[in-house]
Amino acid sequence: MRQATYDVLIVGGGIVGAACAEECARHGLRTELIEKDMIGGDATAAAMGHIVVMDDSDAQFTLTRYSQQLWHELKPELPDDVEYEQCGTIWVAADEEEMEAVRRKHAYYSRRGVPVQILTTAELELLEPNLRKGLAGGLLVAEDGVLYPPCAARFLMERAQAKGATLRLGVPVLEMGHGRVRLADGTELSASTLVNAAGSMAPTLTPGIEIKKRKGHLVITDRYPGLVRHQLVELGYLKSAHSITADSVAFNLQPRRTGQALIGSSRQYGAEHKEVDREIVARMLQRAQDYMPGLAQTSAIRVWTGFRAATPDKLPLIGAWPEDSTLYLATGHEGLGITTSLATARLVVDQIL
């Protein structure tokens, strides 16, 4: 069964796909987004929602900083349920070795115009009194923020639809390529441009993409206003993020506008099931309590998992796929899809036009 031809067909309704749809529609392209389930599900629903600058590489810094600035520009238009809060990130240093990493990050960000402040032990205790005593200090990145990803994705998709984009929900895509998308119900769509924004499922639609699933767990507490004021990340998080084989956990804690605390993070390769891994969660919570002992007295109200799309070099795949002149990629963002969604959309559409 054949249906209408579009300028752009986007497969994947996470925040990256929604951002691409909004950007395409903004430029007047006849756009449809296809999502097998719901907007803002899967990896988007399992994301912490940070809007951060990162510096694993110059390329990563440039992409995250550009996208963060786009989020700052969009902030006045975001509805309340997106819960955007520019709370800042504190990279927590446990010892002098990690303070050396703080000083390196401070120098790197300062040279590139990012407002940062090195914190002493006393300053860290003043800003976050519930952290354990005796930590060496930290780095405050004041322009970092957090938001609620499912509602952010929905907002971007609604903006796309207001500009003329259409949305097709509930039908899986079986094949895409060479200007055509075939759906499980037999429908075949065509477009001059296709965008694979299917996250960890992207390789099933575009064989040859170097993406692996990376499973993560999140825990959210009941409401404890004032427990945490900034996004808190241990410097050891970087070692965890760099591991491409071993399961790992690291301390990452976010305040939510509701007064809840969102606890991460974990990374697992080779785990194909969505069920909660109790051992990983126990390790993750113990790590969090090592940094903030008072978390042991809180109540968790939900634990859930998701799969992130990870690439070997930790950089997303954005742009034309060399084996198909009609196909563009917008995937492989792993833990930075929320941050980099807006910049990804700009980069993809700039290449399409």
Describe this structure in words.
The structure is a single chain. The chain has helices at 15-26, 42-45, 58-74, 96-111, 121-127, 149-162, 202-205, 237-242, 278-291, 337-352; strands at residues 2-11, 31-35, 50-51, 89-93, 116-119, 137-141, 145-146, 166-169, 173-177, 180-183, 188-196, 212-221, 231-234, 248-255, 261-269, 300-310, 317-320, 327-331. The model has no long low-confidence stretch (mean pLDDT 94). The strands form 3 sheets. Strands 1, 2, 8, 9, 10, 11, 17 and 18 form an 8-stranded mixed β-sheet that branches. Strands 5-6-4-13-14-15-12-16 form an 8-stranded mixed β-sheet, with helices on both faces. A two-stranded antiparallel sheet has the order 3-7. Helix 1 packs parallel to helix 10 and helix 3 packs across helix 10 (337-352). The protein is globular, with a radius of gyration of 20 Å. It is built from 10 helices and 18 strands. The chain is of the alpha/beta class.
